[in-house]
Specification:
With 295 residues, this protein is of the alpha+beta class. It has three domains: 40 residues; 66 residues, 2-Layer Sandwich (Ribosomal Protein S8, Chain: A, domain 1); 168 residues, Methane Monooxygenase Hydroxylase, Chain G, domain 1, CATH 1.20.58.220. Helix content is 59%, strand content 14%. The strands form three sheets. Strands 5-6-8-7 form a four-stranded mixed beta sheet, with helices on one face. Strands 1-2 form a two-stranded antiparallel sheet. It has a two-stranded antiparallel sheet with strand order 3-4. The longest helix is centred in the last third of the chain and has 28 residues. It is flat, with a radius of gyration of 23 Å. The chain starts with 5 loop residues before the first strand and ends with a helix. The relative contact order is 0.08.
Length: 295
């Protein structure tokens, strides 16, 4: 939309605020707004939006489809969800979903085939950065635990890895939710941050799938596999450090290192080379994303 600049007095220029935005954010005379300059752009914020958002959906009998509905509404930033479902037992699926993937939500009302989910937390503008760093650390821990368990051939601990990605899922969902509600400090970089979160989640899934395949089939583990996994974990850790302490020379080195690793993995006949290759490819993908974020 366009707004005409109006001259007040001898030197003060003003523009009017959109009426729809004023109503949504409950702006009144005397309110203070945060104004940020970004080049040729001027960003006006009212802080957290006070009006709560709610969505009513009928899941019917679609259990898996219903789970995607709920997590999608969570990621989009809704404060309340009214859920109708065919089977009363579906409430157990919802409880599990809240526990494993939805930080801050609770069931506040429950009937036979209906429940209301509400966000009981509230949010601050710095929560995205906190969630993102926590996601990084959880992913690095998951990679390290995968290596330790595969090196030790401990199948008992390996079986438990399948459920250890739930915290990663929670912080992925929470990070995307914070992007939808508050942005990332620069609204132009929101797609890049969204992509970063989704790929970190995918990297964790590669580790989980590799451990699950080994547990199910008792695949052979040799020294070369352990060495490749250890090197990829080192690349992931180096990438984490570069994300928070950007260095062009080290970025260039990591680009070359992961390129060489991909070529070596293509020649490998190990059962795990598929997963290692995908992790390596995702790291290279995110290197380009970080460059976009830093520009």
């Amino acid at each position: 939309m366009k707004r005409k600049v109006v001259l007040h007095g001898s030197s003060t220029l003003t523009i009017s605020l959109p009426s729809a935005w004023i109503k949504t954010c409950h702006i009144k005379k005397g309110h203070e707004l945060e104004v940020t300059e970004q080049g040729r752009e001027l960003i006006i914020k009212n802080g957290p939006i006070s009006a709560r958002t709610k969505k009513e959906i009928d899941i019917g009998g679609f259990e898996r489809f219903g789970k995607s509905y709920i997590t999608s509404l969570y990621r989009l930033g809704y404060d309340e969800m009214g859920l109708t479902y065919a089977s009363p037992g579906y409430i157990n699926v919802i409880r599990s979903l809240i526990s494993n993937e939805m930080i801050g939500f609770e069931i506040t009302r429950q009937e036979n085939n209906y429940c209301l989910l509400q966000d009981l937390t509230g949010h601050s503008s710095d929560e995205f950065e906190i969630a993102l760093r926590r996601l990084w650390l959880l992913t690095l821990d998951f990679a390290s635990e995968s290596l330790d368990i595969i090196k030790s051939r401990n199948t008992a601990e390996l079986k438990s890895m399948a459920g250890q990605d739930y915290p990663i899922n929670r912080f992925c969902n929470y990070g995307i939710r914070m992007l939808a509600r508050n942005g990332s400090g620069n609204h132009k970089k929101i797609p890049q941050y969204y992509h970063l979160i989704k790929v970190l989640e995918r990297i964790a899934d590669h580790y989980k799938d590799m451990c699950s395949v080994y547990f199910a089939n008792r695949q052979r583990i040799d020294d070369k596999l352990v060495a490749n996994l250890a090197e990829i974990n080192e690349c992931l850790a180096d990438f984490y450090r570069l994300f928070y302490s950007y260095n062009e020379a080290k970025m260039e080195s990591l680009f070359q290192r992961t390129k060489n690793m991909k070529q070596d993995l293509l020649m490998s006949n190990s059962w795990a080379s598929f997963y290692l290759y995908d992790i390596c490819s995702d790291i290279r993908d995110l290197l380009s994303t970080v460059i976009e974020i830093r520009l």
